[in-house]
Amino acid sequence: MTVQVTDSTFEADVLKADKPVLLDFWAEWCGPCKAIGPILEQMSSEKGNQMTVAKINIDENPMVPSKYGVRGIPTLMLFVNGQVAATKIGALPKTALYQWVESVLPAGQQRTA
After folding, report:
1. What range(s) does the Thioredoxin domain occupy (predicted)?
2. Which residues are catalytic?
């Protein structure tokens, strides 16, 4: 299950997390955001021991997207040790999303197939 992040919980949930966090910037009205939702849920259940998959609704939480310059959604940011390690804008097919995450996760946290 993905973690719901808010402006007020962002620091604790993402910046101070003890493992990498994939944060999905989304909105209820965003079709592509809804399209990748099930992929992110699956990724959360499959990679929950390696990373946290989280979502932040940009309409309800405008401070964090503004701070990170989010201009289009979905925007995916992978945070490692409180820093943005990589960013992807737009919906990705499942295979491409998994490959991107695997390429960014720190060594030792990647799962070998």
Report:
1. 1-106
2. 30, 33
